[in-house]
Amino acid sequence: MxxxxxxxxxxxxxxxxxxxxxVILLLFPGRLFTFVxxxxxxxxxxxxxxxxxxxxxxxLVSNFGKVxxxxxxxxxxxxxxxxxxxxxxxxxxxxxxIIGRELAVTSLRNIAAQKGKDISSSRLGKYKxxxxxxxxxxxxxxxxxxxIDFHAIGSVFLWAALALTLxxxxxxxxxxxxxxxx
Length: 182
Prior knowledge:
Elements: H1 2-5, H2 8-26, H3 31-57, H4 63-86, H5 92-114, H6 123-141, E1 144-145, E2 148-149, H7 150-175, H8 177-181
Antiparallel strand pairs: 1-2
Helix pairs in contact: 2-3, 2-4, 3-6, 4-5, 4-6, 5-7, 6-7
């Protein structure tokens, strides 16, 4: 069992498999199912850190992982944001901006790859991801527990994530604007 969960590609596949489960859970937005969705999302988010850690530590970096890891991250975050918007728990326009930025930066990375250049994640991009995850977990919990308003906490992180989304997106395009000219 330990072997399965220490293989970076298996962790990436777990993250992809978690997406439809989270979507199904959010089709029934009661306390139990949203809490389970939050736990599942949290575990999946942790695998994002672990797959990179194991890949580098064990020398298991693969082309599959290079392509599928960022795709798994985008699927997990985007699907969850879309479901939160469909429930009316976050603004749809905000989700459009976040997903639009992801698509734009992914397109920029593809252009760079075609020109033999690599655009690694920036520090702002990593903060953006951290704040998105920090927003999603309490937003999924949504309900008040022990007088803690999880939705309000998630909303604060969401606005910070939006700001970092815009800043990091602009940063990528400013740094790599030369790629767009050719």
